[in-house]
């Protein structure tokens, strides 16, 4: 699952255990919110988890994808099937806004007149860097955020950097009374039932470097490819490169090069949309992990790699410095030379083991249970 899907999933899973929280889902056909009982939420989460590898995993139930579900904190408990008329004593928590649905944004504006709206922001990338998204996404995203964020009472972000970005964007739009902006730390662990030993054993025959995450232009996979081509020209032998993630937008040129260049055909393996069991095995067996993104709202692969005690080569800037702390090794997202220097450094087993020892002694993992529990406590206490 993608990073945002992982956050949505873990929030809903944790919140579904709390009796003081209700759930609503957006019915796009009717243009209304509908109440969901706890069993429906549980079934939807189970379906999503079991079908995360499926192309249509987000639309397997009438309620729609998990991003359509929001939580609400009623002052007085509402029975299943009761009216969704909220009061000023209630709170509606938008876990993932449907910024491509105009009616959804207008309904939130209407609701904000008589209840409290709180919203999660994962990043402001479509506004700040429209070149990293499809041409229509930037305007649609901005239109939604302009409607919804100013009428929110509180905004929860996934990093301090995203909090700063959100505040800066709101001020650039002329919003004078800013909502309260709070950040919370995401979890690092990948919760799995049975590790995929098969994928691990197939790759254990040789060292491999791992890059995990959606394959899209913003993730900057091409920089790694350039570093590998530099290594080829200089006679430097690098480990197999494993790219694990789903295909995203604006990635066709990268995939074409990998599939047709004779050197890259032997050096790169693409594992599309790996389930968590496979991803966990890849992290566990990788020599090191590379996170080359131009910009991130947080940087889950950085934290996940460090949780596995892996040497982590991360691009600098945005929230990645925040995510990687002093445990990650950094390179410019624009410099294939800097990345190649780090990969050459960690060809040396002693250098690799020394850094791994430091990471294991210095880094403190943070579970999704801790993350969402902290979010929940922060939410109800304020």
Write the layout of secondary structure elements.
Layout (H helix, E strand, L loop, with lengths): L2 H13 L6 E6 L4 E5 L1 H13 L18 E5 L17 E4 L7 H10 L4 E6 L3 H4 L8 H12 L5 E4 L2 H13 L7 E4 L13 H7 L4 E5 L8 H13 L6 E6 L6 H9 L1 H6 E5 L3 H10 L2 E4 L8 H8 L3 E5 L4 H5 L4 E3 L4 H10 L3 H14 L5 H14 L1
Parallel strand pairs: 4-5, 5-6, 6-7, 8-9, 8-11, 9-10, 11-12, 12-13
Antiparallel strand pairs: 1-2, 1-3, 3-4
Q: How would you sum up this structure, described in words?
A:
The structure is a single chain. It is globular, with a radius of gyration of 22 Å. Residues 53-64 have low confidence and may be disordered. Strand 4 (91-94), helix 3 (102-111) and strand 5 (116-121) form a beta-alpha-beta unit. Helix 1 crosses helix 16 and helix 8 crosses helix 14 (336-345). The chain has helices at 3-15, 38-50, 102-111, 125-128, 137-148, 160-172, 197-203, 221-233, 252-260, 262-267, 276-285, 300-307, 320-324, 336-345, 349-362, 368-381, and strands at 22-27, 32-36, 69-73, 91-94, 116-121, 154-157, 180-183, 208-212, 240-245, 268-272, 288-291, 311-315, 329-331. The protein has two domains: 3-187 and 368-381, no CATH class; 197-362, Rossmann fold (3-Layer(aba) Sandwich), CATH 3.40.50.2000. The two termini are 31 Å apart. It contains 16 helices and 13 strands.
């Amino acid at each position: 699952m993608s990073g945002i899907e992982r956050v949505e999933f873990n929030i809903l899973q944790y919140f579904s255990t709390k009796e003081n929280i209700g759930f609503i889902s957006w019915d796009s056909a009717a243009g209304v919110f509908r109440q969901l009982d706890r069993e429906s939420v549980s079934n939807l989460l189970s379906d999503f988890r079991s079908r995360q590898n499926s192309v249509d995993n987000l639309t397997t139930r009438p309620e729609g994808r998990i991003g359509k579900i929001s939580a609400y904190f009623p002052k007085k408990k509402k029975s299943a099937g009761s009216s969704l008329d909220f009061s000023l004593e209630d709170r509606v928590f938008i876990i993932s806004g449907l910024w491509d649905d105009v009616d959804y944004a207008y309904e939130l504006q209407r609701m904000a007149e008589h209840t409290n709206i709180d919203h999660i922001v994962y990043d402001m990338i479509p506004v700040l860097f429209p070149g990293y998204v499809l041409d229509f996404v930037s305007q649609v995203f901005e239109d939604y955020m302009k409607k919804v964020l100013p009428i929110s009472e509180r905004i929860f972000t996934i990093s301090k950097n995203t909090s700063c970005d959100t505040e800066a964007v709101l001020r650039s739009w002329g919003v004078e009374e800013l909502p309260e902006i709070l950040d919370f730390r995401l979890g690092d662990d990948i919760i799995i039932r049975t590790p995929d030993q098969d994928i691990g054993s197939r790759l254990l025959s040789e060292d491999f470097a791992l890059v995990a995450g959606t394959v899209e232009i913003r993730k900057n996979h091409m920089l790694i490819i350039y570093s590998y081509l530099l290594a080829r020209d200089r006679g430097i032998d690098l480990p197999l490169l494993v790219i694990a993630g789903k295909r995203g937008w604006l990635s066709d040129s990268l995939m074409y090069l990998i599939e047709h260049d004779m050197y890259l055909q032997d050096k790169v393996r693409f594992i599309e949309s790996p389930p968590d069991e496979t991803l966990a095995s890849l992290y566990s067996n990788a020599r090191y992990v590379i996170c080359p993104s131009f910009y991130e709202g947080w940087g889950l692969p950085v934290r996940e790699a460090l949780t596995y005690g892996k040497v982590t080569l991360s691009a600098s800037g945005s929230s990645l410095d925040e995510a990687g702390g002093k445990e990650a090794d950094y390179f410019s997202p624009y410099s294939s030379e800097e990345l190649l220097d780090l990969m050459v450094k960690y060809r040396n087993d002693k250098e690799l083991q020394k850094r791994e020892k430091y990471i294991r002694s210095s880094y403190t993992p943070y579970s999704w249970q801790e993350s969402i529990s902290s979010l929940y406590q922060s939410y109800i206490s304020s």
